[in-house]
Structures are given as C-alpha cells and as structure tokens.
Amino acid sequence: MAKKHIIVDPITRIEGHLRIEAVIDENNTIVDAYASSTLFRGIETILQGRDPRDAGLLAMRICGVCTGTHYQRSIESVEDAFDITIPKNARLVRNLIQGSLYLHDHLVHFYHLHALDFVDVVSALSADPQKTSEEAVKWAKVAGTNPYIEGAGQYKEIQDRVAKFVKQGRLGIFGNGYWGNKHYKLTPEQNLIGVAQYLKALDIQRDMAKMQAIFGGKNPHPQSIVVGGVTCVQDIQNPARIALFKSILKDCTKFIKQAYLPTVYMAGTMYADEATDATATYTAHTTGKGVGGTGGGLLNYMTYGDFRLDDTGFYKSALLFPSGVVLNGDLSKVYPLDPEKIKEDVTHSWYDAAEPQHPYDGTTIPKYTGLEKKADGMSYLKTDEKYSWIKSPIYDDKRMEVGPLARMIVGVASGHELITKYVTKFLKQGNLPTTVLFSTVGRTAARAIETELMADEMIKWVDELAANAAAGDLNTWTEFDFDKVSVSTKGASLAEAPRGALGHWVKVEDGKISNYQAVVPSTWNAAPRDYKGRLGAYEASLIGTKVADPEQPLEIIRTVHSFDPCIACAVHVVDSKGKELGVYKIDTQCSI
Amino acid sequence: MDKKVALIGSGNAFFKDEGLGLYGAKYIKENYDFSPTIEIVDGGTLGFKLMPLLQEFDEVIIINTASDETLDIGTISIKTTDEFLDGSLIKKTANEVEIAEMLQICSLTEAMAETTVISMVPKDIISVEVALSSEIEALWMEYIGVTLDKLKSLGIKVTKKNKECTLQTVLDIFANPSIEHSRGF
C-alpha cells in the first residue's frame, strides 16, 4: 500500500527555516522523517580577522533567540584563549543574566510557542468557570501549592476576554491551531486553565526581561559583559538594584511554582498514555524494544555543563549543570565529556568537506545541491544526498540530543544531588514513571523542572552577590595584557544555552581571530542524517509517532516544538498552512 | 502627558538588504534630534524579546523588510495594529516571521503600544554582507522620510543634526562594532 508523505514546509531560505518531511504508513504511524533547515553560518567568516575583544558584538547577531547567550559564549571563548579567570562578582552577575534568560526563554517557549500544541483554545470557551477553579486547585495541590489564578470570577473574566478577541477577529496566533483534533486531550476546564495562564505569562515574561536588564543593561541586546568580566559595577554596589532584582525574581518564582509546574503536571497526566507508549518510539522501530514514549527519539543525551559555582575558572569549577553523556537512556552510567570527540559531518548537508571536522579546524564551504521537483509539481528533499543547511554534529561517533532534558538526564545519571532532587520530586508528585522522561512530554516537563530549579538557585546567587558587595568586594574585571595573551592561542566556550549545548571555538593569531566556529543547540537537534545514515534528534523523535489526522500534523509539530527550536523555526511550522507560507501539502500518491 | 515613543530597527545586519531596518534606525539616531525625545532601539534579530517594549511604550514604530515578491523592489508599506493583526504582514525571512508572530501574541495583552510597521521590499537578503543593494540605496532617503513623517504625525518635532552621518558611515559601524566606542549601534 502506498505510504503517505507529509511535508511541513515553511519555505526554504536562509537562516532558521525548518522543513520536516515525514512518511506515514497505512496505520498513520510515522515510519521515516527528515529534518531540513537553514541556519546562519556566514557569521563565522565575518569574525575572521577581527579583534577578539569585539567578537561578542558580532556573534550576538548570529541568532535573535540566543543573542545574550551567543554574546557571552563568544566572550568566554576568548577568555579561555587568554586564560583569564573572571572575578566572583562577574561570575555571579553572568549567572544571574543567563539565569534570567533561561527563565524568560523557558516561560515564553512553554506558554507562547508550545502550550497550544496541548491546549485547545476553542474548547476553553465552553468551560465552566467554577469547575475550572476547582480543577486549578486540584493540579496546584499535586505541585504542593495553591493556584496562581484562583476563583471562578477570574476564569470567567478571562473566558469573556478570549471570547471578545474571537468576536473582534483579534485572535491572531490562535487562528493557526488544529482545534478539535482528537489528539487534544484536555477537558474544556483544563484548556481554560492553560489559556488563562498563557495570557498571564505575557505579563510575567515582561518582568523576567526587566531582571535581565538590571545587570545586563537597558538595551535588549546585552551590554555589560566584556572580556575579563562585567561593567555593571554601579548596579552591584547599589543595594536597591539588587533588592529590585530579588523582588521581581520572587514574583516570577511564584508564577513558576503555582502556575507553570501545576500545568505541566496536568498536561503530563492527561498525555501520559502517549508519553508512556513504548510502541510509538524510535527504539521500538529500530530494535523492536521500545523505551519511553512518543517523541523519545535517540535517547543519547549530551551536556557541556554550565553555571559556575566557584571561582576556579573554566572547566575547573563546580557546575550547576554537570557535563557528560548518557547513552541509550541508560541512567546508570554517565560518560565524561571529552571536547576533542566533537566533530561536524556534512555528508547530508549543503557544505563541502572531505571528512568530519573538529570545530577548531572546521570549514564552512557551501555546496548547495537543491531540491528535486517531482511529477506532482512539489519539490522534495533529495534525502539520499545533501538536504539541509545544518551540519551533522557527532560526539564520539554518535548522534546526540541536547537541551533541558539532556541536562536533567545527565544530572540524574551523574548522581547530582540538586538535579536528582528536583527530578525525583516532579516524578513522585506527578505519580509518573521515570521512563516518561524519554518522550515529548518528558522533554517539556524537564524544561519546567529546570525553570523551578533555576529560579531557586538564582535567589542564592543574588544573596551571594549582595553579601560580597556589602563585604567591600567591588571587583568586576580581571586585567590582562592583550598584546601578550593574543599572540597565538585558542580557546573554547562549551556551555549551555537555554535550548541546549552551545559551543564557540576561537583561534587567535597576532591579536586577530584566525578561525571561528559555533555549534549551536539546534544544530545538534535539527541536524540531518550523518555519514553513516544515522538520524538526527528531531528525525529520530518523530519515528513511531501515531498521527490522528494526516491532514493536521499536530503531533509532528508538538514533538518538534518540545525541543524549543529557534523561534523562527517554531512559528514557521505553526504557520505552515498559512496563506503566505502555503506549502503544506499531503501527497497521498508518493510511495517511498 | 507626552506619549512614550520607541523606534525599533529590526533585521539581520549581515544579510545585506535584510539589515535595512536596523541601518535605518541607526541612520535616524545619528542624523536627527527629537522633541520630546524618543527611544531608538537596536532590535536586531530579536523577536519575542521585543515584547516588553510593546508593553512599556505608548507608540512603537518598527522598521524592517517585507520580502513580498509580488511587489517591486523598494516598495514601502505602512501597516498599523489593526492591519497586521489580520495576518497581513509578510512573513518570509526568519526575522519577519518572528516580528509578525510576536505582534500577534502581544496583541492579547491588556495594554499594547499603538504599533506601526514600516517595511520595504528588499532585493538581496542572501549575500553575507553589510551593505545595501543599489536599488535600495537609491530609495534610502524616501524610506527614512516615510519613517520621519510617521514620527512627525505623532506630534514629535524632528530636527536635523548639524553634522551629517552618511549611510556609508552607518554601514561601517555595523561592519566594525567595537567595545571601545559605538558597540555596533
């Protein structure tokens, strides 16, 4: 019987576009998947020949989503090359700026880019506000707290507001959903809880952005981090600034604990059947023995580690998130990370290179071979050849997934006390098995767990910063002799962006950058097949997924979104059937 | 009370015409004074991280590209809140998508700035270069003029500075950002 070919194509062009081609069998199960994308690579060429102290200002323009992270990583790769250890105040300020970025990123991702893959907005309009209020209490209790939005009155008001949006045609982003799809599993009341929090989260994210600005500067681009430390000494010595940061952080933490977490428990429970369906997994497809549930994918997880907890310097200090590698979902073993084992392969990428390369020696030579137009008039990826602008990173000759789930998995497998505590608490309170982590729902839950953990740790860093400043230490910058340290050297910043492992590698000769490579999280996750034909993380995660209605690729979008792809990718997919993009098509004729 | 006004330049500075909104904001910042003062923002490739600005200001003007292949290169369009909420903003480049989606999501907040998006149809958004194609450069002052007219319509007095900062100088700043002076914006 002919298999159906689903294409979710948000138009091909440069930078951040994502196209998914999935093949489904007669039972509407995905049996093959290809992720194709274009990400900005030219930046690396632009950096060559520059003063390494200015690299951050160029690198921050790599991508709008991770601007602050790229900026910091770029600066830290130069600090590593120059062997600079930044002062305590600088470390704490950077942790707080990055931490704020995590909170903002995770919250906006969950509510504004991902929640509507689980929450049916239209259904929320028929909810009973009183029952909604009771339902909210129920899920808050699971999280051991009270609901952030309480009382039938509030839910009624929100429901009326949404109804008004619908009437005015101001439903904007809600217009793109597959409302009514049977793979939406929440009750009308649960959907209203989701919608209510979606709206409230718009206010909370604004506060999170304010936190970032207190130490990072007013401009939406980071201002205060420089090679050697930070420049915001005035903010550090002003107790009112630190107090303001702490006060906003506390308010945001309240929302995380009383709204975000309870809602993830609710979604985790209502979607538990999918999250524990081991037959719907890549491992079931490849080995016959499934582990985890829908969306699980590779089950290989890698972290570079991040958030330094002491001042001993790069790759020496204790970390909030440990580095490491977990293979095949085996939590009993963690392998230490060896940066030398990171390579990028371009067999299926539109680049030219003889063999997999280490980023220090990486090249970026475009070799675009295009798509193939078939008789039906549609253009298809040439999946046997090159089909993506993303390179295929491999670690120790294995494919990897990166991101919050990887950080939680590696943390637990390492026996990391804090991470284990938060993950265990989540699973226990939610009455969910450990294997639920190996799924789309697990990936989304891991991000929520991490958000709570981060918010709690940030409070400690603020106090540490305040105490250090009060004790008279206002040092924010480590002096260095540029001419001496920049003769011939190289350095790397291997750390964690909110959406996963991010590495910047720099080589410096005679005071100028001679080579620069960045391997971003979406490269690891959204990569095409490699030289051995092994699937990338998105590709593997889609295999085995059962699609309710092939005309509505809700499940594909839900799983891809769970990785938190760059926003542009995310919204492109959501919008794939929109009139401007207009390339979404089901081809029932194509047999592969 | 005066309205709080922000002008946001949006786009990727390294993809030739895709940076035109960003270059435009910098050009206006360097060549004109405003009374009352306005906030001129380097929106870069930021999408959702611009939401707080729409929540904090009364009026926001975003200048960027609109990669609409059905229109002539250099065509300038002006869209107000009501117009873009119907989904009519062009969404082709990654940044155009982010801005359009961000505006739609932001419109669900209780208080969102009156927002105007002034876009220009680019020619070349693929070359990795800090530059403008000649067609866009030829229409540069028209594009700047449309943006200034919008500001004037809000009751803002626009005065040209004594010393001119050329478009080429603006491009040089983006191509050579430095911690020591301009930081690239």
Structure report:
The complex is a heterodimer of chains A (592) and B (185). By secondary structure, chain A is of the alpha+beta class. Chain A has one domain (4-587): Orthogonal Bundle (Cytochrome-c3 Hydrogenase, chain B). Chain A has 20 helices and 17 strands. Chain A has a four-stranded antiparallel β-sheet with strand order 3-2-1-17. In chain A, helix 4 packs antiparallel against helix 8 and helix 10 (239-270) packs antiparallel against helix 15. Mean pLDDT of chain A is 88; it is low at 10-16 and 569-592. Chain B is α/β, with parallel strands linked by helices and 185 residues long. Chain B has a single domain (5-175), classed as HybD-like (Rossmann fold). Chain B has a five-stranded mixed β-sheet, sandwiched between helices. Chain B has a two-stranded antiparallel ribbon with strand order 2-7. In chain B, helix 1 (20-31) crosses helix 7 (167-175). The longest helix of chain B is centred in the C-terminal third of the chain and has 14 residues, at 140-153. Chain B is globular, with a radius of gyration of 15 Å. The two termini of chain B are 29 Å apart. At the A-B interface, helix 1, helix 2, helix 4, helix 8 and helix 20 of A face strand 3, helix 2 and helix 4 of B.
